[in-house]
Amino acid sequence: xxxASHKKYWKQNLKYLIVLLVIWFLVSYVFGILFVEQxxxxxxxxxxxxxxxxxxxxxxxxxxxxxxYIRLMNRLDKKYRLEx
Amino acid sequence: MDIQTWTxxxxxxxxxxxxxxxxxxxxxxxxxxxxxxxxVHPIANGLATAADWMSAAxxxxxxxxxxxxxxxxxxxxxxxTGGYVLLALLLAPYLRxxxxxxxxxxIGDRYYSNVARIVAVLCALxxxxxxxxxxxRGVGLVFSRFLEVNINTGVFIGMxxxxxxxxxxxxxxxxxxxxxxxxxLIFAFMVPAIFISIQMTGNPIPQIGFGSTGADGVYLLDKxxxxxxxxxxxxxxxxxxxxxxxxxxxxxxxxxxAGLPHVIVRFFTVKKVSDARKxxxxxxxxIAVLYTTAPAIAVFARTNMIETVNNKTREELxxxxxxxxxxxxxxxxxxxxxxxxxxxxxAAKNELTIDQDxxxxxxxxxxxxxxxxxxxxxxxxxxxxxxxxAGLLLVISSSISHDVIKKIIKPSITEKGELVAARLSxxxxxxxxxxxxxNPPDFVAATVALAFGLAAASFFPAxxxxxxxxxxxxxxxxxxxxxxxxxxxYYMLRFKFDWxxxxxxxxxxxxxxxxxxxxxxxxxxxxxxxTVSLFTPKPPKxxxxxxxxxRIPSNAGEAHVH
Lengths: 84, 562
Description:
The structure holds 2 protein chains of 2 kinds.
Chain A: H1 3-34, H2 36-40, E1 43-44, E2 47-48, H3 49-79
Antiparallel strand pairs in A: 1-2
Helix pairs in contact in A: 1-3
Chain B: H1 3-24, H2 30-35, H3 42-53, H4 56-69, H5 74-98, H6 103-110, H7 114-147, H8 151-201, H9 206-209, H10 220-231, H11 243-259, H12 261-264, H13 273-309, H14 319-326, E1 330-332, E2 352-354, H15 358-366, H16 371-409, H17 415-438, H18 443-468, H19 474-497, H20 517-534, H21 541-550
Antiparallel strand pairs in B: 1-2
């Protein structure tokens, strides 16, 4: 494995990290905290949306984010033949 | 059968199970003792991490805390789960690739310095000891409440059990007992929640149930908001804390989670890098089961409690009220002598005080569930407290035997000698933890929450920069860690313990509470680290090589430094 391809692998990894962490920030800090009142004006079932994100939705998204990352990285490892 | 008999039977059975597992999975090498021989399956590691992570506080106190604070309780829900995203994406795979035994190992090698190693050991010990004392206390509390033994006897029994499997099995024993403990604690948490959800909303899934309508056709949350307004509390679904503080507390808890040594070390126990990622995913999934149920329990318990007791006379109260009143955790003082309980926000008129911890413990009784379920909750609380205590004790003992004795004091020590040292330090750590469990210094409760701030302010930046910033050198990392943890300690001692002139809420910097200050200290740690490193020499070539090496999962074709 050459140093150049390692660099490419690392860059792609960083790209994934940025996208996933933006979503991570959005569902918790933005939806659950900063704009919670605005979202609370929307209701689905018995839940106000902002409250739901703070106490339920953000946690579901966190779990999904990690499993998406696992998939993306497994594929990337395969592409660069870096599976251990 | 009565509750006591059931509790002895169920707790006895679970303890026998833990001891059996410990005997079956004895550690025979330091690799077994520190990292379970690096052979744990990712799902097993996920289960163990979840049990390790969820302490007596998660199991017993959290739902109650949310129940009394409503939306403000979200900081714990988001804070104690969101950290796993950081762990899975930013820490676990790289630390596993690095492939040593402890967090100070990484800091010491990456920053080519024993000073950095010692600073890291001190931070690890400080964080872990503040945390473990609370766990032993939790064990004692559950014993005294459900089995009516003296609280100190409870702590002794807990110490003995933990000692047995931590000393014998090390990380290997702890891992497999934690798998069993997760199963016990999640079963104990879910069964009452499901029953209560069916009773109150007809829906067996609590996560959906608390957004549904009750028997009267009104949405449960709307009803609760209404009750809160009527009694003068702030609305359940909206907060009373300042937004900036909610933001900073959530961040401190998330980052602290990702920086806790007993959580990080769990990712050293799997076979390969991809397994480290996977086990973080499984861990969060298993944790999420409890963390998404807790807010539902909070709503059920709160509604139930207000409707059952408010404006009732003593004769109308159910039996559980008297049971818990004798423990002193519920008190009723009839201030206006009308013979009825007034439960209101106004402290001058309120006649009822309820300890938040009983929300989970009393819930099965409030919902009139059978006695064996109440006993199960006791076993679940013990499983949560014991599993966390064991994980912390392992961090303490490996810090001493590996990071201090093997790496600094006596590098020539044999493998056998190190294993003996590890077991001896585990014994000493259990005894100290037990001492704090029996004689809790009054600062324990306050510092458990702050342990997260300390972890965020000290480790997190050093590890992240160590992986993502090749230019980071030892001068920067050491300066950052020292400034970060000192600042956090200063703020905590000043505003929690009244040192350095003390101060009130008005004196908080930018309105940020000590619980949220870890985020500020972490940011300052980052700034100091980077600035100092830019004015000091680059790290040596072979260290930059380590960084390149941990960034790729395999060792294909690359020369290895370690």
